[in-house]
Amino acid sequence: MTDISKDVMAPPRSFLSQDAIQVFYRLLAALLICAVLAVLSDSFLSLGNILNVLRQASLTFFIASGLTLVVLTAGLDLSVGANVALSACIAGTVIHKTGSPALGILTGLACGGVVGLLNGVMVTALRIPSFIATYGMLWVLNGLTYWYMAGETLHGFPAGFRQIGSGYLFGLPIPVYLLLVFLGIGTLFAQRTIWGQEIYAIGANPVAARLSGIPVAKRLLLVYTVSGTMAGLASIIFLSRLNSAEADIGESLTLPAIAAVLIGGTSLFGGVGTVFGTFIGALILTLVLNGMNLLSVSANWQPLVTGIIVILAVWLDMKTRRRAQ
Questions:
Q1: pTM of the model
Q2: Which of 133, 229, 244, 299 has its CA 20 to 30 A from that of 15?
Q3: How many CA atoms lie within 13 A of 309 on its CB side?
Q4: Mean per-residue pLDDT for 69-84?
């Protein structure tokens, strides 16, 4: 029993590890993309465009950060986009009915967290594979959202609430400050806490983790709840940014979030990756899409490019794992 525990509970992961090297390579890739776009487009290095890239990357990161913890356990949450949509619509309704942005924010976070918890229950108590459980939840949430909204659109929220997604502080978009806060929290949680190390252990070997005394079911409930709550947070940011909510608000959000996680170096097989890497992944993806817009590439090509990037990220992950074996 002791030997298993030693194997599972490795020393705290630091930025002097293999993870740090992978993050460094991705930072170089981001800088290379910036250099290429700066040459191809005179508008890329403008202050307005740089701030827009940071804002868009932060919106993707809010969803992808919680999803990272799920993927670290070798799971997947396909419901995050649909979760954003339902949470945004319910939060928007609460704000309209009560006139209280604070109550709307709490409602959006709670709605997202409850959905995440239900995903965790299906994975742990019902033993449904995460792909199937969250894919089914995606359709359930889509159905509920379209039924709830009945074709209507909510719009016109208080100016103070809108500052969350579209406001500036000292020249930087407010979502960027929120990104820095949650990037710090996520990194410290995953790298420096016992719970974080247990999440890595579960992804590396769930059987050994269970035998070593790690409460696997509780930790899985935790990561799915966190993923759902971060989707709830993203719903608030999107709601305040767009100043409107409709049933299809989250349909295009799931694939970019998954792409950011994989581009950032988190392995679909679990146990490898960092929240900071996911931030770099979100930045790289945003830079690519931003570059396509600046170069007047049709928006119809953007899903294709995102899909190719995801396939390449998974292929590189599998190739790296084979070399390590």
A1: 0.89
A2: 229
A3: 26
A4: 96
Question: End-to-end distance of the chain based on CA atoms, in angstroms?
Answer: 25
**Residue 208: helix, strand or coil by DSSP?**
helix
For the packed helices 194-204 and 216-242, what is the interaxial angle rounded to 10 degrees? 110
Q: Residue 245 has which token pair?
A: 């909510």
Assign residue 148 the CATH number of its domain.
1.10.3470
Three-class secondary structure of residue 244 per DSSP:
strand
Reduce the DSSP state of residue 266 to 3 states and report it: coil
pLDDT in tens, 272-300: 899 999 999 999 999 999 999 999 888 88
Indicate the SS3 state at residue 21: helix
In a domain, 218, yes or no: yes
**What does the alpha-carbon distance between residue 310 and residue 325 come to, in Å, rounded to a whole number?**
23
What is the domain count for the chain?
Answer: 1
Q: How many CA atoms lie within 13 A of 13 on its CB side?
A: 27
Tokens of 230: 């971060």
Q: Does 30 map to a domain?
A: no
Q: Which helix (H) or strand (E) holds 131?
A: helix 130-149
| Alpha-carbon distance values, 16 to 13, 22, 192 (Å) | 8, 11, 14
Q: Which two tokens stand for residue 135?
A: 């894919």
Domain around 158? 42-323
Secondary structure letter of residue 253 according to DSSP: T
d(CA 294, CA 44): 7
